[in-house]
Amino acid sequence: MEYRQASADFDRFILDVREIAGLQTTNQAYTMVQAVLQTFRRRLDVPDALLFANVLPPVLRAIFVADWDLEEPQMPFAGRFAMTREVQSLRPDHNLSPDTAIADVAAALRRNVDEATLDRVLARLPAGATDFWRA
């Protein structure tokens, strides 16, 4: 059933992101979501990343793992400012992510997944994971 509803669920999520972030288009929202997910993924090893991916709806799960360079060094969680700049660095000519990008995507994610399950998984991940997904 989760795959049957995947497109509708993703559309609802991306509209939530666009609204929360005050963006003009869903393309802008998509770039921001992709950048936030990649920024988070860089801070996890593969088993932890897969644990997190299992909480995500199918389309977000696919975005999270797409184009993953497994040779890229794992980065430590940093301050929100530094990680936001990392988000904003993805396709900078087309990226209109606001300084609230991570919190905005977190708020939309929490609207669209089971929060208790998300929080249980985040508690199992490295220090910094729970703070990253605070709205």
TrEMBL record:
<dbReference type="InterPro" id="IPR018727">
    <property type="entry name" value="DUF2267"/>
</dbReference>
<dbReference type="Pfam" id="PF10025">
    <property type="entry name" value="DUF2267"/>
</dbReference>
<dbReference type="InterPro" id="IPR038282">
    <property type="entry name" value="DUF2267_sf"/>
</dbReference>
<protein>
    <submittedName>
        <fullName>DUF2267 domain-containing protein</fullName>
    </submittedName>
</protein>
